[in-house]
Amino acid sequence: MEYKKHVLKNGLRIVLVPIKEMTTATALICVGTGSRFEDVHENGLAHFLEHMFFKGTERRPKSMDITKELDALGSQHNAYTGKDRTAFYTKVPAAKIFSAMDILHDLFLHSTFKAAEIKKESGAIVQEINMYEDMPARLVYDTFENLLYGQDHPLGRDIAGSKENVTSFVRKDFIDYLARCYAAHNTVICVVGNFPETKVLQKIRKDFSDMVVGEKPTHEFFVRMQDAPALMIKDKKTDQTHFIVGVHTGGFDHKDRYVLSVLSNILGGGMSSRLWEEVREKRGLAYSVHAFTEFYPEIGYIAAKAGVEHDKLFETMQIILKEMKKIAQRGVTQEEFDRARSGFEGRVAYSMETSDAIAMNFAEQEATRDEIVVPEESLRRIKKVTRADIQRVAKEIFVNEGLNCTIIGPQKEKEDEIRKILHF
Rounded to whole angstroms, how far apart are CA atoms 41 and 32? Predict the structure, then answer.
């Protein structure tokens, strides 16, 4: 897939991906910042700030002014905050891309952040936090990273922050964070789909040429110090026990990142994976079980997640750990290896079908890594992975010193018993 990258004098990066066959176009702004750039007192500020961009600008004083215009364009629009990225986007019928870009530019550079709106939105975010607390199947992902990285490190803190922090933020906090993190050097604008390339580039140059130059913000790197299995139990009355078990790995620049992706697929990437067969098909222990990876620049992890009946926790955990250990000891078959690698071709194809999916992929890579690996290159790297690589990496990572498990459910009284089975 071809794209063109332009860099303005102020450091703003522009990535254009014209695809004439599409009937839509997406404009997306991605900033290389998120919750890992906050200190403990700021935790939740990046996420709160993302909300505030939609609460009014100088030209569109009310949030309803923004949403009415976007809805009139037939737009699909949203924003999201991660630990190392924040993005705002609008996807529209191709002919309306300039109107959509005008609104996106306005809210990104001319939001007013009124004190009354901040106070009002803090209540909505508190309710968002409460909502996630009532969703253990989702909450368990946050608690797993709480355990992996600890509350003393930004990676270990929740993106939404604490209720106490959210209700304490004032306008100056947002303005200071903007000045520190929302600089041109730290921002990427990506447009994907059916659009006139020259005119879109001219519009971005005109609208964003006076954006503050600034510098990329720095963040605290994580240094792993774990030397024994770690366990965190969030004791909660639930209908199921939800848990994640996994290990530390290298980050997204590590030489084995693509090996880990294939390993994850073999372990629990689909309905023909080992965990699906052993946990669901053979024993009916879980409706859903899967493995996944996550990568930050300096660190990452591979893990498996399931939701089970409370009294099936031990059995399911032991099966997952056993399958991880088996791969380390015996490797994988040629059949499952070939199936896992070839499955990536479909996944990559599906992820590149829509203009918004491509925009997110390209912009996030550029904002967080200063490079873009196109789908064809990802597949080339996947094809270089060997069965020997899978077993080698499995031996390196599936060790007790890197093992972590987080559990949500009424299991606190069984902590000692759980610790006894938490090993390879």
Answer: 20
Over residues 381-414, the pLDDT tens digits come to 999 999 999 999 999 999 999 999 999 999 999 9
Structure tokens at 34: 């998120």
Which CB contacts under 8 angstroms, 24+ apart, belong to 258-261?
A: 258/378, 258/381, 258/382, 258/384, 258/385, 259/385, 259/389, 259/390, 259/392, 259/393, 260/293, 260/300, 260/302, 260/393, 261/293, 261/344, 261/382
pTM of the entire structure? 0.95
Pairing mode of beta strands 187-193, 13-18: parallel
Distance CA 283, CA 275 (A): 11
Compute CA distances 314 → 146, 267, 283, 411, 420, whole Å.
Answer: 22, 19, 13, 11, 10
**In degrees to the nearest 10, what's the CA dihedral of 35, 37, 40, 43?**
-30
Q: List b or e across 266-275, with b for residues whose CB sees 16 or more CB atoms inside 10 angstroms.
A: bbbbeeebbb
Return the amino acid letter for 11. G
3-state secondary structure of 179: helix
Rg from Cα positions in the chain: 23
Per-residue confidence band for 351, with pLDDT thresholds at 50, 70 and 90 = confident
Domains of the chain: 4-208 (3.30.830.10), 230-421 (3.30.830.10)
Strands 230-235 and 300-308: unpaired
Q: Are 26 and 91 in contact (CB under 8 A)?
A: yes
Q: What is the DSSP secondary structure assignment for residue 57, as one 8-state letter?
A: B
